[in-house]
Design a protein that fits this description.
The chain is an alpha/beta fold. The chain has three domains: about 60 residues, no CATH class; about 140 residues, no CATH class; about 180 residues, no CATH class. About 40% of the residues lie in helices and about 15% in strands. The protein is built from 19 helices and 14 strands. It has a four-stranded parallel β-sheet with strand order 12-11-13-14, with helices on both faces. A three-stranded antiparallel β-sheet has the order 1-2-3, with no helix packed on it. Helix 4 packs across helix 5. The longest helix is centred in the N-terminal third of the chain and has 21 residues.
Length: about 475
């Protein structure tokens, strides 16, 4: 069984044990009664099912799994002062033997007396209270302790300081991110020292439920979270909306929750049970590691965005990457939330193919918004049929596209054909030193790395009604609207 005989698992990341609680009206008229039925995971259907004829799961068996919710309000500063918090539980027993305790507390009492003796103020207060006791008699002999003289009292006044390179500062003076991470780290100490301490030889298996672990964190710190979460004993289930966290995580540890046809679908990014026909290549056991590594290597920046996307638009350059998101938000409203626009630099790149395969594998509708130069047409027609689904292709100016008649074959030319002054104004906002711009098309192409967002801003200012926009843009947002509806 290895070094840890308490955990039975099918590595990696495939623990399969669960139970369901039923709360029913008591037949004895005593209110309610509860039953706990063991569940079995059916890999073929992806569902948990109750074992037929199985006995209830007893209290002792349930006690072998201990769950703890760590929510977004975690804050070590607040927990230090709150009774019953994780850090207060840890500090409730300092684990000091009796001989050492007696010596330490004797020295604390001596240090406290020295402080009183060395302080004119405290000495005066002590003499005044002593005089009151002699005069009244029932007040009690005074004793002033400027510092705690028992270890438990000392623990209650404990301060945790962090040094980020500019000197140690108390935890209360650090940002919410540092306090959140420190609180999460204490969780492991709680399990190690206290969990199951009152039980028998088998200690409970901890299951930690972490809500939004990236809350309050700098993006660089968020990318380190998977390593921290893996260091916590037991199983950790984290809900996240962070593209940094999922990009840095092993794909086999990720479960993607998506709405599919009005119901909730769970996409397991680990390998499928077999290489059965119809299984997308990235999920086939024989290709899973290679395909996931390729995806993360080629599309690392948008990998996290893809996981959270409701739809994916593969653009054909930097201008589209800046231009399309704001115009889609304007045209689609709330539906645009989750639409991810990706620039693979060219439709013929491995990045474009990796994104296409992954969109197909996780069943996200995807669209291609492409220039219609001859090389682009050939690349797009090959890319569009990647995987088992076919992308919806919106051409900018392809001659046989009825929606694009009269529109030239690039996004910059499309804008010039639609309203040249929109392009001119955008160029002059990005580069005021070029005003007045004479050759708008050439200037837009020279500024394609930075003009996309500004181009969208000017279009929305001049043409707020999306039904008047260039036909390829209208075709794109109508296709996305149809897919999301």
């Amino acid at each position: 069984m290895g070094g840890d005989a308490q955990t039975i698992s099918d590595p990696p990341f495939r623990e399969r044990f669960a139970w369901r609680a039923h709360v029913r009206r008591s037949a004895e008229g005593l209110g309610a009664r509860s039953e706990f039925k063991i569940l079995t995971f059916d890999a073929a259907s992806g569902n948990w099912v109750e074992r037929s004829g199985a006995k209830d799961l007893g209290r002792d068996a349930r006690g072998l799994v201990a769950s703890d919710l760590v929510n977004t309000g975690r804050d070590l500063m607040e927990e230090l002062g709150r009774r019953g918090s994780g850090v207060r539980k840890v500090l409730s027993d300092l684990d000091v033997d009796d001989v050492t305790r007696a010596d330490l507390e004797l020295r604390l009492a001596g240090l406290s007396a020295d402080i009183v003796a060395g302080s004119g103020t405290l000495a005066s207060v002590s003499r005044s209270l002593d005089a009151l006791n002699r005069a009244v008699g029932s007040i009690g002999a005074p004793g002033i302790n400027p510092i705690p003289i028992t270890l438990e009292e000392l623990a209650r006044s404990l301060s945790i300081d962090l040094d980020s390179g500019h000197g140690a500062l108390p935890i209360r003076m650090h940002g919410a991110g540092a306090r959140s991470l420190a609180s999460l780290q204490i969780q492991g100490v709680l399990y190690e020292r206290l969990l199951g301490a009152d039980g028998g030889s088998l200690r409970p298996h901890p299951v930690t439920l972490v809500e939004e672990p990236e809350a309050h964190l700098h993006p660089q710190a968020a990318s380190e979270l998977p390593h921290l979460l893996q260091s916590i004993r037991g199983q950790v289930v984290a809900s996240t909306h962070s593209s940094q966290v999922v990009t840095a995580s092993d794909p086999r540890a990720i479960r993607l929750f998506r709405e599919d046809g009005g119901s909730l679908a769970v996409v397991d990014l680990g390998p499928a049970p077999s290489n059965a026909p119809g299984t997308p290549r990235p999920f086939r056991p024989s290709h899973h590691t290679e395909e996931m590594e390729k995806l993360k290597r080629l599309a690392e920046r948008p990998f996290g965005e893809i996981l959270f996307a409701s739809a994916i638009v593969v653009g054909d350059g930097a201008t589209e990457r800046g231009f399309l998101p704001p115009v889609l938000r304007h045209a689609l409203g709330a539906k645009a939330h989750g639409v991810c626009v990706i620039d693979p630099e060219s439709m013929a790149t491995q990045t474009a193919r990796a994104v296409a395969k992954f969109a197909d594998a996780i069943r996200v509708p995807w669209f291609i918004f492409a220039d219609s130069d001859p090389a682009g047409v050939a690349a797009v027609e090959n890319l569009a049929t990647t995987g088992t689904s076919t992308a919806t292709v919106i051409w900018v100016g392809k001659p046989d596209s009825a929606a694009a008649k009269g529109v030239s074959g690039a996004i910059e030319a499309m804008i010039v054909d639609f309203d040249e002054d929109v392009g001119r104004t955008a160029c002059e906002r990005v580069r005021p030193d070029l005003a007045p711009v004479a050759n708008v098309l050439s200037t837009m192409k020279d500024l394609k790395g930075s003009i996309g967002q500004t181009l969208a801003d000017v279009l929305l200012e001049r043409h707020e009604d999306s039904t008047t926009w260039p036909s390829p843009v209208q075709e794109l947002f109508q296709a996305i609207d149809g897919a999301l509806s």
